[in-house]
Specification:
Layout (H helix, E strand, L loop, with lengths): L2 H9 L4 H4 L18 H13 L4 H13 L3 E4 L2 H5 L1 H8 L2 E4 L2 H10 L7
Parallel strand pairs: 1-2
InterPro entries: PIN-like_dom_sf
Organism: candidate division WOR-3 bacterium
Protein name: PIN domain-containing protein
């Protein structure tokens, strides 16, 4: 079985993965008009690659920027390591491992209601 088949099997909707919150908090969005030309990759992605950020993490940064995200909440150490560069280049504030701050920011921006 290929890696893709295994990933689909383990994460497909209505599986044990999703039954226990594996995709909780994800929002489906339409990535209309997103493109990654060579020029754009050099301008927007080269620094992250140079800093040894993984390809999927680079894509997350670029897609979050494309969507106009103001905050990026994550547990991923690659983002924590380069969060100053991300904020400087995109304006996105990366919040790492600080659940209280994540909730506070979401409440302040009226993304969620406080209790």
């Amino acid at each position: 079985r290929s890696g893709e088949e295994q990933l689909l099997q383990e994460t497909w909707d209505r599986s044990v993965f999703t039954d226990y919150g594996g995709l909780e908090g994800l929002i489906k969005v339409d990535m209309v008009n997103f493109d990654l030309t060579l020029e754009k990759a050099r301008r927007d992605a080269f620094l992250y690659a140079y800093l040894q950020v993984g390809l999927s993490d680079i894509m997350h940064i670029l897609l979050a920027h494309h969507l106009g995200c103001k905050f990026f909440a994550t547990w991923d150490q690659d983002f924590a390591r380069v969060k100053e560069y991300i904020e400087e280049r995109t304006g996105i504030v990366v919040i790492c491992k600080d659940v209280d701050r994540m909730i506070r920011e979401l409440v302040e921006k009226k993304c969620i209601e406080s209790e």
